[in-house]
């Protein structure tokens, strides 16, 4: 196996150990011209990790113990004769005692000669399924990844895991399975990778929880790995020429469809117009187009260093996305050659970089849950206070939906995520010295990319200068108080104001609130809407409140009411919203003790949220009258989740 490689612009030469190995299909020939954001022009080479030079390890020549791995009590790692870089797969491909393992591999397409058993094996984990635009194209992308891995002289094996469409399940009990799917994805990828002894992972996620799920698995495994984001969707177009509620242009996305219900209830859309918006909001493959959770997490993970440059901004249906998939083969070969692992990349500083780009882009509050969980998986301490610290020092710069005008495809056309990273590094808001999956630092990755244009006649309008921000600090604020003694997460862009005081209008379920809104929208004026028993245990699964927030915005009530919940908010939610209230109602948190009419003050300046007229004695008196409701889940996967899941403030993990 060769060392670090650079990709050429022609069809890559085959690097195989056997003439019978599968050839690379002609469709993978790369004929596009080189450019600063063309993956075909990238090179992957060793620099350093934490200041120490990376050099490819020499091939072992003696029998050595198998690599460190989890083994049940009573099992002892077996010695074997390793080859160059198959550090893990050699456990089953080299010992004569593992003949049955080798026989199974001979049945696969990959092994056609004895030498093929010496090749490093790469697990390609796709979150493909047909019933969701975010994921429906991932199997096709995995074919390009497989071809790139083959071209790099490695042995690819594709496998699949499950996913949940937040857009489809939103507003129904199906949403209880969304956050839980993150754990199932992490567990299943870890399971296959561990049982099959693959040497490295390339994961191809599409929808919201897919991204943190696969990264958590890579962190647990701590084998070479990288993520390829499935890519963002293109905007839709109303056939009736209708304008989106935010952009005031005929450019629709999934939130347009969510908000159409509130507009219909308020009488500002006819049934024909509502149906037109629904039919045309999602024109094809790709994740929801604004700076919602999928694009947020993809951007965070690129800034973290776990995906290739432009992965988060390249559209799903683009030649560049296909080139990225093929380029992953050379990148993973370099990671294997240098034994560069997630723990070398996912450092405390890298996580602060990840949070910084979330703040600058106005990303989803779900990033709080997911980055905390990802950090736990790799043994890094990230807390609510980490988010607040970064937020205090990072301005909100992006005019992206849901609070702004533009979508991810627009950002890609003016330089994409690397241009934003370069700008944040130049402004001292990100650290450019962190290692990435290219084998180079994040600063090296972006030093040749085109910078954001702030000055020409055709200057971009999506990212503002640090001196002229949308908001001087981050939009994500961590609030504490007598309603959230363990913290809560607010999304405050500045457009909705910085303080709200009003009487509580309490609902014990999302469905109750939607029913009340449809019957009497005017009763929501001036109130703080409280939706509780929607936390990780109470929901169960901490469902997102995009349907309620979209209904409020669509009904024209976004400026005259606030919403707090122990559930989550979608990346598409906007307005005066506070979620992740902990402790949650199901475990006796103060939010479960509120009554209609209790006066609530939300103060984003002082970062507090309190029931202003209630004393601790009042809470104690109400707590004596309160009893924990029965779990909504009685058996099955959600019951297991309820029994294992931790607090939202700790990332809702199930293995802590």
From TrEMBL:
Q: Can you give the residue ranges of the Dihydroxy-acid/6-phosphogluconate dehydratase C-terminal domain?
A: 462-652
Q: Which reaction does it catalyse?
A: (2R,3R)-2,3-dihydroxy-3-methylpentanoate = (S)-3-methyl-2-oxopentanoate + H2O; (2R)-2,3-dihydroxy-3-methylbutanoate = 3-methyl-2-oxobutanoate + H2O
Query: To which pathway does this protein belong?
Result: Amino-acid biosynthesis; L-isoleucine biosynthesis; L-isoleucine from 2-oxobutanoate: step 3/4; Amino-acid biosynthesis; L-valine biosynthesis; L-valine from pyruvate: step 3/4
Task: Name the domain of life this protein comes from.
Answer: Eukaryota
* Enzyme nomenclature, EC number: 4.2.1.9
Which one of the record's GO molecular function terms can you name? dihydroxy-acid dehydratase activity
What are the entry keywords? 2Fe-2S, Amino-acid biosynthesis, Branched-chain amino acid biosynthesis, Iron, Iron-sulfur, Lyase, Magnesium, Metal-binding
The signal peptide, as residue positions, is none
> Example GO biological process term?
L-valine biosynthetic process
Q: What family classification does the UniProt entry report for this protein?
A: Belongs to the IlvD/Edd family.
Its protein name is dihydroxy-acid dehydratase
